[in-house]
Amino acid sequence: MTNPAEAMPSSAYSLLDTGAYRSSILTRGPWHRAHQHAGPPIALVCRAIEHAGAAHGLTHIARLTANLLRPVPISELSIDVATDYAGRNAGHFSARLIAGEKVVARFTALAQRENDVPIPDGLPGHPLPPAPRGPENSPEAAFPFAGKHVGYADLVETRVSHGRLFEGPCAIWFRLRHPLLDSEAPSVYQRVAVAADSGNGISAILDLERYVFVNSDLTINLLRRPQGEWICIDARTLLGPNGCGLAESMLYDIHGLIGRATQSLTVSRRDE
Length: 272
What we know:
With 272 residues, the protein is mainly beta. It is 12% helix and 39% strand.
């Protein structure tokens, strides 16, 4: 059961007068009680990059890459965003996520201008494929670490489109139960970022009690603007014999495929 002394926050983050962000325990991940799941802080940086892109009329986040340098503490965070290049149809942006005086993650992103360009009928691979099963017909699911303490499992609602959580390849629908920031409605890109970092977890093939399989990065590629509150992560984990691995995910909304995500994994035994 969740510790009753831990009151449920209203959002993952709150904006401070200084422009920094105060993290709530809704961001807590499964690996350490003092560390965040990487999904929420990646989404918070995505928000800052969206604002930078929108200033140039670049409203589609086509790619977001997070290099996770250190665990992100549940503490005050600040974000620096730089416009590396902004052209008519595309812009490149970089960002730093800072906790205290340490840079805990670095980001690069590609933002594109959206235009109405109808595509011909009958193209190979089109219409884009749907998720295995929609959220309205998918049973509810719970993370194996849910209920131990307030954290990421309380931030998101999950439903099984295909397979089983933490038992190999599976597809899981995600929807935010709480806002990312105060009472602000999260964008569709932020919803994708919160969910996409869970690919290595939901498709885990190792025992969570005996192994650690942490990702040191996340790259999201989106072919179009997502729609709606629900995001489906159809993931699988692949492991090498050298303590390294890869989690790869197909990403969907209720209308079909929206893109892909990959995570590089570091694997170790907990008793080592």
